[in-house]
């Protein structure tokens, strides 16, 4: 499906003005590779600093054209397709690490900075942003914040919402607003860093963020085990969570027709690691424990390898006590709808799910699974789907908060300039 | 208040749920910050969510501002009543609704006392992590409003880290559910915005909390230094060694004296006392504690003690947690401040505080969360001495300015409330504050929910060009246009 944006840049003067702001070499006509879920924008602007970005955004807002903020474009097709996309506002050149206050364990970084390059800098002082994202060598700070991606480290360190301590955003009217600060502990004013985390760029464009950091671990070891049944793997996960083990990550890997496996990561001193390993063995009883290389923690990202026209990927949320039920549901969907499935599920209850089937079967499978998850306090968000399923709602039921969310959107982006239609409730 | 409205409110909460006699209202005229006092028109004590909604609907219809109140222990005047307004006390909504151990979730009403959550799950070796010093009396609803911290948030995070879902009565009386039992529910993280909004966005009536498994062991070490600079250097070295202690607290000599006088924790008499707590697996903690001991001695600690028993550990903490109240033993009056600095600025800021103290003749005791740079300078004065209260107030604001100059914050855990709203424009620019207030307008367009707090100047929502008509808040003298 291909939709051409209806709003052509209305006057050449807007184009000229944008060019004057960002420089001729940083405004270009969009190409096919700039399309966003089948919607083709007209221009791509790459401002060099946050003031330029805010000015360009306000010009677009004034002209009534739709703006799609873009970082590394690794997750640009997540969420619903935009209703309009005229201007891509790229943060590619806002990629500076402004300040690594290593002795204070904080970092201030521009939104376009690539995760891996940030981590490399932090590692020079034995620190990290305790967060594992998909495609860290391409994903930007602004992008992972906006999409609220999180991986296996979340169990111990929380999600980005728990690590971000300050943010600056550009609003469509050109306002550059900061909230939070540069210190870890701070309750002055509203916590807007959390508001824009996971907002899919619909409220403002994140231009910089401040994070709290953690020390790199002294040593780390990963172990894996296999369970005989879904119930058994759930019991193991709950028992580990209920124990006094100090694990960093804990995940389940499972696929149609395979026994469920689980992986656990310990980060500690050498003395601590040995003790943890022996306690885990004791806890698991007869279940055999194998040491594994840390590549096992790429399993979530590996689900994204070689997608076909029949591939759908989704993020699911559930309560840990519903792990077995959910795996049962997947198994029966697999059988009844001929859906091939693979899942990597964290002990936090956040999972990445890959489904493979004819698109018509995928629709039924997603709807059935979403209904089941929602009835048990869970959720299912479609991240990637075949072209012909672009009209399928990515979000599902967002509850009774939608009118309030619309009111927040109306206050910050009253003309619906940013990413129109991508978010919940047609925001 | 109009007798008709008064009757209507009484019919919602019953005669026992309405406080209106002047002598009883005095109880509610201030919170833990006692130098600001306002008499409310009435205090309402609803017993369930429907009653809260019904009260708020009346307030909304009649344009009566309201202030939610938990236990009233706040230290920034967040629960201070507003003129011509009512107070909605959540003290009667104090049930623990659900304990879900396998998922480590507890659902409570807002009036539940912080420590009672831990009390309920303790037999199963779980605890609720945020631990403000007032935890034996403060309520979860108040903790949500203030995003309360405590000594252990260095490792475990603040209230916002441990709140997963909220049921909220919005300022028009409608009910909304934010977040939930599972993580990452679809939509904006409005729960994240609500936590720490100091009662300005509505009233939380149900709170889903995350509880934490108690670690295998907890060890607490006391180290005595000649001064806070030496103790501060030890803190930096502990952090640089890649450790994340459960808590690192520091007290200066004046604070030690006060704590000794009040609860006799048997602290060494020194210029800078460091309290370091590590928790986790035994093997790990014991190996790291040896490193902490060594780091302290290397930085000049002349006495290092490891609490040997739980009783000793509890006594050590009792001294620290009683430090504020203990000031009464050494000074008739005091102001508690709550500024935050990047930890590396500690020596600079401490010596400047000492200089100011000397120059003004106002004593300052220092107790702080050294791990995260959250200072709690206690500015001591005697109200009976003419001019001392004003000198103490201006010194305490000057200390907050020092924190801002060092790149920090005016408040780490007590909130802005009434007390520090005039400092907000020193910390944030006008566009920053305006953006926050736009968010507020989405929740509370009529600005009825705790309307005079946090922001130096309320923003009137939905202003449209046209003939000037005074907003009800302007007419009441609460807001002004800018």
Summarize this entry quickly.
Chain A has 427 residues and is α+β, with helices and mostly antiparallel strands. Chain A has 13 helices and 21 strands.
Describe the structure.
The complex is a heterodimer of chains A (427) and B (482). Helix content of chain A is 30%, strand content 25%. With 427 residues, chain A is an alpha+beta fold. In chain A, the strands form five sheets. An eight-stranded antiparallel beta sheet of chain A has the order 17-14-16-15-19-20-18-21. The two termini of chain A are 22 Å apart. Mean pLDDT of chain A is 95; it is low at 1-8. Chain B has three domains: 3-89, Uridine Diphospho-n-acetylenolpyruvylglucosamine Reductase, domain 2 (2-Layer Sandwich); 96-213, Uridine Diphospho-n-acetylenolpyruvylglucosamine Reductase, domain 3 (2-Layer Sandwich); 217-405, FAD-linked oxidases, C-terminal domain (Vanillyl-alcohol Oxidase, Chain A, domain 3), CATH 3.40.462.10. Chain B is 36% helix and 19% strand. In chain B, the strands form four sheets. In chain B, strands 15-12-14-13-17-18-16 form a seven-stranded antiparallel beta sheet, with helices on both faces. A five-stranded antiparallel beta sheet of chain B has the order 5-6-10-8-9. Chain B has a four-stranded mixed beta sheet with strand order 1-2-4-3. Chain B starts with a helix and ends in a 7-residue tail after the last helix.
């Amino acid at each position: 499906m291909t939709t051409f944006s209806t709003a052509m840049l209305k006057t050449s003067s807007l184009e000229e003005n944008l060019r004057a702001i960002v420089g001729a070499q940083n405004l270009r006509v969009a190409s096919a590779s700039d399309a966003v879920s089948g919607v083709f924008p007209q221009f791509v602007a790459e401002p060099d600093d946050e003031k330029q970005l805010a000015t360009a955004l306000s010009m677009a807002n004034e002209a009534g054209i739709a703006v799609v903020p873009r970082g590394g474009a690794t997750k640009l097709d997540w969420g619903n397709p935009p209703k309009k996309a005229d201007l891509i506002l790229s943060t590619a050149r806002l990629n500076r690490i402004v300040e690594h206050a290593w002795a204070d364990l904080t970092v201030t970084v521009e939104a376009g900075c690539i995760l891996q390059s940030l981590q490399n800098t932090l590692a020079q002082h034995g620190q990290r942003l305790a967060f594992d994202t998909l495609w860290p060598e391409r994903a930007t700070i602004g992008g992972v914040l906006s999409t609220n991606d999180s991986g296996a480290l979340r169990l111990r360190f929380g999600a980005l919402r728990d690590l971000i301590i300050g943010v600056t955003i550009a609003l469509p009217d050109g306002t550059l607003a900061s909230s939070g600060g540069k210190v870890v502990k701070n309750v002055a004013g509203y916590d807007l860093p959390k508001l824009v985390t996971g907002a899919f760029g619909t409220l403002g464009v994140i231009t910089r963020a401040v994070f709290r950091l953690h020390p790199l671990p002294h040593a780390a070891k990963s172990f894996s085990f296999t369970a005989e049944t879904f119930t058994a793997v759930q019991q193991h996960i709950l028992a580990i969570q209920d124990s006094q083990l100090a694990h960093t990550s804990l995940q389940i890997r499972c696929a149609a027709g395979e026994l469920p496996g689980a992986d656990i990561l310990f980060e500690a001193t050498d003395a601590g690691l040995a003790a943890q390993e022996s306690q885990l063995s004791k806890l698991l009883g007869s279940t055999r424990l194998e040491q594994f290389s840390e590549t096992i923690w790429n399993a979530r990202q590996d689900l994204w390898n070689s997608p076909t026209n029949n591939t759908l990927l989704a993020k699911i949320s559930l309560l840990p006590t519903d792990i077995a039920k959910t795996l049962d549901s997947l198994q029966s969907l697999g059988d009844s709808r001929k859906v091939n499935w693979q899942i990597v599920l964290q002990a936090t209850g956040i999972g990445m799910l890959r489904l493979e089937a004819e698109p018509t079967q995928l629709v039924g499978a997603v709807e059935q699974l979403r209904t089941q998850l929602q009835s048990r306090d869970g959720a299912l968000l479609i991240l990637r789907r075949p072209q012909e399923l672009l009209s399928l709602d990515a979000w599902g039921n967002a509850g009774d908060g939608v009118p309030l969310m619309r009111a927040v959107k109306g206050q910050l982006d009253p003309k619906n300039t940013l990413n129109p239609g991508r978010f919940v409730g047609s925001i | 208040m109009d007798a008709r409205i008064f009757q209507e409110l009484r019919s919602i909460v019953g005669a026992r749920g309405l406080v209106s006699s002047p002598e009883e209202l005095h109880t509610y005229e201030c919170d833990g910050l006692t130098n600001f006092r306002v008499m409310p028109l009435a205090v309402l004590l609803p017993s369930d969510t429907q009653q809260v909604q019904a009260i708020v609907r009346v307030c909304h219809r009649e344009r009566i501002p309201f202030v939610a109140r938990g236990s009233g222990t706040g230290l920034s005047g967040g629960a201070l009543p507003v003129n011509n307004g009512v107070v909605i006390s959540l003290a009667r909504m104090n049930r623990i609704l659900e304990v879900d151990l396998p998922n480590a979730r507890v659902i409570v009403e807002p009036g539940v006392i912080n420590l009672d959550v831990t009390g309920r799950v303790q037999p199963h070796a779980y605890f609720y992590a945020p631990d403000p010093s007032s935890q034996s009396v403060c309520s979860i609803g108040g903790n949500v409003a203030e995003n309360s911290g405590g000594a252990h948030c260095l490792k475990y995070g603040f209230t916002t880290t441990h709140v997963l879902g909220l049921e909220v009565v919005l300022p028009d009386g409608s009910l909304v559910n934010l977040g939930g039992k599972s993580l990452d529910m679809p939509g904006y993280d409005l729960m994240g915005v609500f936590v720490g909004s100091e009662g300005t966005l509505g009233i939380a009536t149900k709170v889903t909390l995350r509880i934490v498994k108690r670690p295998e062991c907890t060890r607490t070490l006391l180290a005595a230094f000649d001064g806070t600079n030496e103790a501060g250097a030890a803190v930096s070295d502990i952090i640089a060694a890649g450790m994340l202690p459960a808590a690192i607290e520091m007290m200066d000599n004046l604070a030690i004296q006060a704590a000794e006088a009040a609860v006799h924790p048997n602290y060494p008499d020194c210029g800078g006392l460091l309290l370091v707590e590590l928790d986790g697996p035994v093997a790990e903690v014991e190996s790291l504690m040896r490193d902490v001991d060594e780091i302290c001695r290397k930085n000049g600690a002349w006495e290092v003690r490891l609490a040997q028993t739980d009783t000793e550990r509890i006594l050590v903490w009792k001294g620290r947690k009683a430090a504020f109240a203990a000031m009464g033993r050494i000074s008739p009056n005091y102001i508690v401040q709550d500024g935050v600095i990047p930890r590396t600025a500690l020596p600079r800021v401490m010596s400047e505080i000492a200089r100011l103290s000397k120059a003004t003749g106002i004593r300052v005791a220092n107790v702080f969360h050294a791990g995260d740079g959250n200072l709690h300078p206690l500015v001591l004065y005697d109200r009976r001495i003419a001019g001392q209260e004003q000198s103490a107030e201006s010194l305490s604001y000057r200390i907050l300015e020092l924190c801002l100059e060092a790149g920090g914050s005016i408040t780490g855990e007590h909130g802005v409330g009434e007390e520090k709203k005039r400092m907000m424009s020193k910390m944030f620019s006008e566009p920053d504050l305006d953006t926050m207030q736009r968010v507020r307008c989405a929740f509370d367009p009529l600005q009825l929910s705790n309307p005079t707090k946090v922001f130096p100047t309320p923003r009137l929502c939905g202003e449209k060009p046209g003939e000037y008509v005074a907003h009800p808040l302007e007419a009441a003298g609460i807001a002004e246009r800018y």
